[in-house]
Amino acid sequence: MEGLTFGPLPTLPSLVEGLNPHKIAFLTNTTVERLWLEKAAEGIEEPIRIVIPDGEEYKSLETAVAIWKQLQKEGFTRRSLLIGLGGGVITDIAGFVASTYMRGTLLGLVPTTLLAQVDAAIGGKTGVNFNGKNMIGTFYLPNFVLIAQETLSTLPEEEIRNGLGEVAKYALLDRKVYALTRNFEGINETLIKECALFKTKVVEKDLRESGLRRILNLGHTAGHAIEKLSGYRIKHGLAVSMGLMVASKVGEELYGFDSGKTEELLKKLGLPTGHPFRAKEILEGMRLDKKAWYGRITFVIPVEIGDVVVEEVDEAVLKRALEATRDDSGSCDCQKPRGSA
Q1: Domain chopping of the chain, boundaries
Q2: Taking the complete model, does pTM exceed 0.85, yes or no?
Q3: Is the confidence at residue 2, as pLDDT, over 70?
Q4: pLDDT number for residue 253
């Protein structure tokens, strides 16, 4: 498993030194460049700086090609280190580029958003969007992941909420995280660490998502369809929140799960509990989901807090859950987490 380190940005040079790389390159976006690149690069000798525009639309094969070209121009080798400094888009594309350039270079990740710190940067999934989210990608473990909580200090409230969608997922999967969210008053290191460690333990048992790791897709089957339907205007974590409510309604019908617990959790974290789309539209998107292994919709379903099952679900059940969670009032994405300004 990748080396997971919790510490401030000045920890980075020692992690880099331990790999003894031939060359070092930072990959970041225009926003993070302005906020954190100089501090992250302190103590690292003459790093190459690759900066791409900020936005989900730049998580593409075209962007990957441009990065490959720059690495080749700079004389990057298999013993060179690519450091992804940024949120989920950056950590995903940095991993994809590192895993494919010369069949694999050294990779370090420094996630700067809550979503990336608790989820996207951990576990070795890489990818770019191609007619759907993360449809092209690899499994490739980074040599290290540095979680520096200080980088959250410049994060807009919208991005905090985005990350809380994944925190809510972990709360339904793990009783320890659920307990931490019961009296939620804001993000803290303990909550981030417990989410990250839970994912690490799951990935250690199933890197390539052939079994246990599939539970980490809780909320994502409907969530990814919602995200795509919105043209990615609904951020990933908020779409996952909506997907968690759908999954909970499925669990309520099939296993007697108390969906009220999910609704209470999401409201406490300031997350949406409904989606704005027709059931038919979301079902069409879910049929294209990469987790539908044999062309049938597979769902992660909560049975109780800390216990889920992964199974195919009849579309009639899904349709009822989607209809029960629809909120087309325009109010499904306007709540603020408790403890926020």
Answers
A1: 3-154, 158-324
A2: yes
A3: no
A4: 98
